[in-house]
Write a structure and sequence with these properties.
five-stranded parallel sheet, globular
C-alpha cells in the first residue's frame, strides 16, 4: 500500500502551526512547505535566478540570498507581481515536495502530512489523498498575527485581506478544525484527528 498524504492548510493566524506540531508529536512525519520554499530559493538555485530575471537584483541581500521580507513587500500588494512570484516559486516547491514524498514512501511511511499555507494555490493538493483546513474567527486570527509577527494592525489586516475567504478552504477540505477556543482545545482536536488518520492509514 502506498503512502497516504494529508494536506494541511488554513488562513494565516488560524492555528495551522499548532495542529502541525501536534500531528508531528503524534508520530506523523510532517513536510513543512515553508522550509521547502526557503530551500527552493537558496543562492544558485534556478528558482532564484528566475526571480532575479523577473524582479531585478534589488530582491537580493548583499550576500546574494533572497530578501524574503523585501520580496513580500513588493509582491503582496500587487496582484500581477504576486502571480509571477507564485508561478515561479510554486513550481520549484512542488518538485521538492514530490521528491520528499518519494523519499518518505521509500522509507516505508504509510502516512505523511504536507503543511502548506498555499496548498490549493500551488496545486500541492493534487498530491494529497485528503485535506485538513484550520479555520478561526477573524478577530481571533488578527490577535494571533499581531502577537506572532509584531505587525501594525493595518499591515496585519492587509495580510489577511490578501488571503482567500474561509469558504475557499472549507469547500475544498475533507476535515475542518475550527479554532475558536483555547490552544489546549485545538491541540485536543488535532490529537483526535491524528488518531483517526493513523487508523485510516492502517498505522
Amino acid at each position: 500500500m502506498g503512502c497516504f498524504v494529508i494536506g494541511l492548510t488554513g488562513q494565516t493566524g488560524a492555528g495551522k502551526s499548532t495542529v502541525s506540531r501536534v500531528l508531528a508529536d503524534c508520530g506523523i512525519p510532517v513536510v513543512d512547505c515553508d522550509r521547502l520554499a526557503r530551500e527552493a530559493v537558496k543562492p544558485g538555485s534556478e528558482c532564484l535566478l528566475q526571480l532575479v530575471r523577473a524582479f531585478g537584483r534589488k530582491i537580493l541581500k548583499p550576500d546574494g540570498s533572497l530578501d524574503r521580507a523585501g520580496m513580500a513587500a513588493m509582491a503582496f500588494p500587487d496582484p500581477e507581481k504576486l502571480a509571477v512570484l507564485n508561478r515561479i516559486t510554486h513550481k520549484a516547491i512542488l518538485q521538492l515536495l514530490k521528491n520528499r514524498l518519494k523519499e518518505l514512501e521509500a522509507a516505508g511511511q504509510s502516512l505523511v502530512v504536507v503543511d502548506a499555507p498555499t496548498l490549493f494555490e500551488s496545486g500541492a493538493d493534487r498530491l494529497c489523498g485528503a485535506v485538513v483546513s484550520v479555520t478561526a474567527p477573524e478577530a481571533f486570527r488578527l490577535e494571533r498575527i499581531l502577537a506572532r509577527d509584531h505587525l501594525e494592525p493595518e499591515a496585519a489586516k492587509r495580510r489577511m485581506d490578501a488571503q482567500k475567504e474561509e469558504a475557499y478552504y472549507t469547500e475544498r477540505s475533507d476535515y475542518i478544525l475550527v479554532n475558536d477556543g483555547s490552544v489546549k482545545d485545538l491541540e485536543e482536536k488535532a490529537r483526535q484527528l491524528a488518531r483517526h488518520l493513523q487508523e485510516k492509514a492502517g498505522g
